[in-house]
Amino acid sequence: MHLHKYEKIWLTFGFAALIIFLSVVGVSAFHQGHTPSGGLQKVDPENLEATPPFDDPGVHEKEDGSYEVVVIAEAFGYTPSEIQVQAGAEVTFKVTSKDVTHSFSIVDTNVNMMVVPGQVNEKTHTFEEPGTYLIVCNEYCGGGHHFMSTEIEVVE
Ligand code: CUA
């Protein structure tokens, strides 16, 4: 097979570009510790009332000043409905769904989890600035999807 000189140049260029882009994605994923977001712990969505930690949804302050916030999503809201944490403290959100797939997305932060029935998703975040943060559902979950939101109060 005969390849024209320009064809060879473009093939080499295209192949090299592909290798470079894939390397950048691969190396940065390892370097920054990207992982699939949670989903490793399984729960029975029918039986959350009897499954720790979802038998006690809410804000739990730990001895070291950090928080564990246990959240259950269901059409079309979140339990607990009120969340208050201190600014500067580490907050770990553990979320699951009782019915269909929702999301737990805190506006202006990196917290953006899919909330799948049967799976537990977890994300840790530190709110540096006090204020009110909006949490919305980003997965279409039914007729009330656009009403599905709540807030986090971050206090001094
Ligand atoms: Cu829940 Cu959309």
UniProtKB/TrEMBL annotation:
Compartmental location: Cell envelope
Origin: domain of life: Bacteria
GO MF, any single term: copper ion binding
Region feature Disordered, mapped onto this chain: 36-58
InterPro entries assigned: Ba3_CcO_II_C, CcO_II-like_C, Copper_CuA, Cupredoxin, NosZ/Cyto_c_oxidase_sub2
Gene3D superfamilies tied to this protein: Cupredoxins - blue copper proteins
Catalyses which reaction(s): 4 Fe(II)-[cytochrome c] + O2 + 8 H(+)(in) = 4 Fe(III)-[cytochrome c] + 2 H2O + 4 H(+)(out)
Pfam families attached to this UniProt entry: COX2
GO cellular component, one term: cell envelope
Domain Cytochrome oxidase subunit II copper A binding: 62-156
Keyword entries, A-Z: Copper, Metal-binding
Chief place of localization: other
Function in brief: Subunits I and II form the functional core of the enzyme complex. Electrons originating in cytochrome c are transferred via heme a and Cu(A) to the binuclear center formed by heme a3 and Cu(B).
PANTHER family: CYTOCHROME C OXIDASE SUBUNIT II, NITROUS-OXIDE REDUCTASE
Protein name per its UniProtKB record: Cytochrome aa3 subunit 2
Lineage: Bacteria, Bacillati, Bacillota, Bacilli, Bacillales
